[in-house]
Amino acid sequence: MIDYISGVFSSASKPNTSEGQESTEMQPQAMPKKFEGKVVLVTGAGVGIGQDLALEFGKDGAFLALQSQESLNETEKMLVSVGVPSEKVLKIVASNKDSDYASKIIKETAKKFGKIDVLINNLEHEGLPVGGDPNSIDSLDYLFKHHLRNAVELTQFALPYLQKSKGNVVSISGCSSTKASASFPFEATINAALDMFTKSYADKYGYLGVRINTVNPSYVRTEPRDPMARRCSIIAVNQLVEKYAMDNCSLKRVGSARDVSRIVVFLASEGASYVTGANWLVDGGTSLCSQQWYRH
């Protein structure tokens, strides 16, 4: 509820003065936090880009609704360590395979905080199913459901709240949307569809004060979700992928979650109040390189 949010602020609204006296000392003025009093919903907040986004928005004063398919305990510990009180955080465990995935997340957020100012569509999927052929129809169906459709549904369910708050949406797409990909044709197709959905809805709802943008990263280094994975062959696989990523990147380094999250936070802020329908590349120049990672 809105009353819930105002109540959290009221406890710190008065200066600490002696009884019956007014404070005459000049107190240093803290810089206002960009998202103070704002409700920010971040999906896929249990690891990687989503986890870093939770930290950045939390440090900037936001009330947080965080979704993950698995535990959010690690993210909560990190938030507490940087001074974000637990009462400002709503944890939502929801599988993106559930038919009510989007509606559940939006309803729980609105029930807790009474409004939504920012929606971050950081769609959480582990790539293609193990052993999946990236050229198969099954892969297309998988990516359509878990990446595109979930982003569309979350945006649609959030729009009534975003219209009231004059809020905004930032979706995580990918730089593969910018050029043909012989290696991952359907991932490129789905990302391109998400980019065009973003442009279309930005045009459709802009007159209501709602901004909608995407951020399009390339390969980003993140920690494996499963601690056991850090001690097995996935490390060797990631090292190989990172080598290809650097070879096909103008800046010759692998991106980090922070590289992406800083741009997302900017687009969600008032500093980007005249930006909508944009697809922001955060790829170190990967989209400028013509070489494919590998060809089937």
Describe the structure.
InterPro entries: NAD(P)-bd_dom_sf, SDR_fam. With 296 residues, the chain is an alpha/beta fold. The chain has a single domain, classed as Rossmann fold (3-Layer(aba) Sandwich). The protein is 40% helix and 13% strand. The protein has 8 helices and 9 strands. The strands form 2 sheets. A 7-stranded parallel β-sheet has the order 3-2-1-4-5-6-9, sandwiched between helices. Strand 5 (168-172), helix 6 (185-205) and strand 6 form a beta-alpha-beta unit. Helix 2 crosses helix 8 (257-268) and helix 5 runs parallel beside helix 6 (185-205). The longest helix has 29 residues, at 137-165. It is globular, with a radius of gyration of 20 Å.
Structural class: alpha/beta
Report the biggest beta sheet as strand number plus sense, adding barrel if it closes: 7 strands, parallel
Radius of gyration: 20 Å
What fraction, in percent, of the residue positions are helical? 40-55%
CATH class: Alpha Beta
The counted number of beta strands is 9
Low-confidence stretches: 11-20, 226-234
List the total number of helices.
8
Strand order of the largest sheet: 3-2-1-4-5-6-9
Distance between the termini: 53 Å
The average pLDDT value, as a whole number, equals 83
Count of discrete structural domains: 1
Provide the CATH topology. Answer: Rossmann fold
Output the CATH homologous superfamily: NAD(P)-binding Rossmann-like Domain
Fraction of residues in β-strands = 5-15%
Q: How would you spell out the order of helices and strands?
A: HEHEHEHEHEHEEHEHE
Which of globular, elongated, flat, extended, rod-shaped describes the shape? globular
CATH A-level architecture:
3-Layer(aba) Sandwich
